[in-house]
Hints:
This is Laccase. The protein is mainly beta.
Amino acid sequence: MAISSRLPAPCSVLMATLMLLIVQAQSITRHYDFNVQMANVTRLCASKSIVTVNREYPGPTLVAREGDRVLVRVTNHVAHNMTLHWHGIRQLRSGWADGPAYVTQCPIQTGQSYVYNFTVTGQRGTLWWHAHISWLRATVYGSIVILPELGVPYPFVAPHKEVPVLFGEWWRADTEALVSQALRTGGAPNISDAFTINGLPGPLYNCSAKDTFKLKVEPGKTYLLRLINAALNDELFFSVANHTLTIVEVDAVYVKPFTVKTMIISPGQTANVLLTAKPFYPKANFYMSAAPYSVIRPGTFDSTTVAGILEYHNPRSAFESSFDKDLPLFRPTLPRFNDTGLVTNFTSKLRSLATPQYPAAVPQSVDKQFFFTIGLGTRPCPVNATCEGPTNTTQFAAAINNISLVLPSTALLQSHFTGKSRGVYGSNFPVMPLSQFNYTGVSPNNTNVATGTKLLVLPFNATVELVMQDTSILGIESHPLHLHGFNFFVVGQGFGNYDPVNDPTRFNLVDPVERNTVGVPAGGWVAIRFLADNPGVWFMHCHLEVHTTWGLRMAWLVLDGSLPKLLPPPSDLSKC
């Protein structure tokens, strides 16, 4: 079944708006049916068959209120195995519904179904869902809108309209074939051909002017843009020409509002921003543009720019006129691709609200301290083979504390719950690098990483401080790290090597931003704190899909408490 190149994004926005209007009840059970199906989509002058949910690209918006129970029946009608992850949902005691393949569940096989069953507890804002197996999230993703409890207002001006804005990446080629080839050769996968806004590449790409996301606004009105970076491998700058953006929430947590012309959003991250239209009809249109941030050399990332168009309703027109191409069209001035200064300036402004209604429960003391190196590395080529890695005798790899996680053939959570972990995983993940070096200086001669399936065990309710340090092995790079099952507070960050004596004296323990995905600065470090109050096995990984594929991932095992215990697995849990 074909999908019109123009239809999906406006339909998704319309459906999201309708859902926002009809969600009236409080703390109820909401049922969704997600059918994983193939669909033909045309972009960049070419058609291809892609994996979708309900033949929508992007997929349907899931709307709930804080406190609601959500049941999503996922039925797999495609040849690929499938899992879905509800990115940012805490999944308190419901780790079976978290979604990462071979971590909390075996994949849903062709012709099989699985019901994801979870309750939205203590969260409100914008999150998102996506496939969590191989690179299928390239086309399998959608937004999650969590409304506040009934009668509870936003802690900012009520918007005239709320609009999901999802950034994605598009490949002309089949991404599953692309990543399979890269794994065979040990090289880097081909970069994407375009970025998209709500599935549409827009006018800056060849023959794509008709596939442009357009947002029509009324003069003087305020709009809430629910931004989601669903791109696989690129952090993105975002700006709207001649307009400002007021940041009011990130990763479904309210922040102290601040206003910028340009913002940064990493893969996995979400942000709610207020855009106030000009008070009078401006007789012009304006690009809404996004382009990548990267400190690696050009040519190894998609350096193109995606644009949607902000257009104004003409109050003198009696009809809802179509797009007026004769009006002036203004473009924003985006930063250089490697503008780390802008990134640092933006992230340093993020602060939790820290009010009585929305407190920042930052752990003031810690029970467990960990230091992780985050970065790239190599693995030797197979015997009698030639590779396309950094050299023809090596293949690309990535690791945390020099351990490149190998996923097992069964689910880690099920192995833990049934007490059958022998031969599946070890409980000896290193709490710090086994060999220390000048992390941001000259790389060591030996860049090989170790492989293994090791978990880091935490007692229930432990307070944790984790410092993540970028390394210069194969070049410094920003890494957006996502922690499943928890939010955390970003208490500090800096450049160079972390100083365990002096850097903690500058930690913000009053109102640090609370997130589920944070960028480890290129050539720097970030410190986070969280409370391990959610029993289960929880994935943590770089949200640059290429790095996750290479092994930049690990998992925490949080033990049961005396009373709050992990719930037993559902009867329809997928089998390997």
